[in-house]
Amino acid sequence: MSQLIVMLDKQILRRFSIKGTSVTFGRNGKSDIALPDRTISNNHARITIVREDCFLEDLQSTNGTYVNRHMVDRHLLEDGDIIGLGKYQIVFRSDQGLEAQLKRLSIHPKLMEAGHTVWLQVLNGRKSGYIIPLRDDRVVLGKLATGQILIEPAPQEQYIMRPVGMNTHAVRILAHGDEIKVEDISFLFFRKNQDENNVSPHPD
């Protein structure tokens, strides 16, 4: 079951298990998670649960809704995302496994947008040959209990990888052809036109 960890000034105020079809946030006492501060609108934001996915939506709040310090109108939550509502930080924890993540994130190579240059290629398992396009958003793979990695864009058009929960010393800058393993699935980091020996993204 997915969970929200409500924090203020780095102190945990509450842990909330996500149940049902939605979770509301606001200064209004009728909200599922009431946040009594004037930086919070009466009806500030909402999480809507659709099957295994959780979508965060801003409800036209005065001060906006943020995920990982970026303002959002609507956002598909990933494990480890930090939601910013006024003075509060809310950490989203998902129990979604790698198989469900691949089902949601990966696409057949023929469906990749023209001109896209960076992706992960799945090397084995049910989704072998499929790809995960890497864009401006972070990608989390694996379960917290068995080990997760986070891949996100960095300056100078680079991508970095680090284990979730580890300090910055564990950061690795990814290079074309790097192989990444999560649980029993291996991935190839692919950057198009990086050299003359690029591996084809198309499955055999």
Number of domains: 2
Report low-confidence residues grouped into runs of 5 or more.
194-199
Q: Quick check: average pLDDT?
A: 87
CATH architecture level-2 label of the largest domain: Sandwich
> What is the CATH C level class of the largest domain, in words?
Mainly Beta
Strand residue percentage:
35-45%
Number of helices: 1
Estimate percent helicity. Answer: under 10%
List SSEs in N-to-C order: EEEEEEEEEEEHEEEEEEEE
List keywords for this structure.
about 200 residues; mainly beta; Tumour Suppressor Smad4; 2 domains; six-stranded antiparallel β-sheet; five-stranded mixed β-sheet
In short:
By secondary structure, the chain is mainly β.
What do these coordinates show?
Pfam families: FHA. This is FHA domain-containing protein. It comes from Candidatus Thiothrix singaporensis. Residues 23-72 form the FHA domain. InterPro entries: Cell_Proc_Reg/RNA_Proc (IPR050923), FHA_dom (IPR000253), SMAD_FHA_dom_sf (IPR008984). The structure is a single chain. The protein has 204 residues and is mainly beta. It has two domains: 2-94, Tumour Suppressor Smad4; 98-191, Tumour Suppressor Smad4. Helix content is 4%, strand content 43%. The protein contains one helix and 19 strands. A six-stranded antiparallel beta sheet has the order 2-1-11-10-7-8, with no helix packed on it. The longest helix is centred in the middle third of the chain and has 8 residues, at 98-105. Residues 194-199 have low confidence and may be disordered.
